[in-house]
Amino acid sequence: MKIHFVPTQFERPSWDEYFMLQA
After folding, report:
1. What is the Cα–Cα distance from 10 to 2, expressed in whole angstroms?
2. Is the bond preceding 13 in cis, omega lying within 30 degrees of 0?
3. pTM recorded for the entire structure
4. Contact 15, 6 (CB under 8 A)
5. Backbone φ and ψ of 13, nearest 5°
6. Are 7 and 18 in contact (CB under 8 A)?
7. Tens digit of pLDDT for each residue in 2-23?
C-alpha cells in the first residue's frame, strides 16, 4: 500500500489505526 504521509508519535491515528484506515 502507498503511504501518503508518515504519522509521527505525536499524531493520531497511530500506526495501527492509520494502516486500518488505509486498508
Report:
1. 21
2. yes
3. 0.23
4. no
5. -70, 165
6. yes
7. 666 666 666 665 677 767 776 5
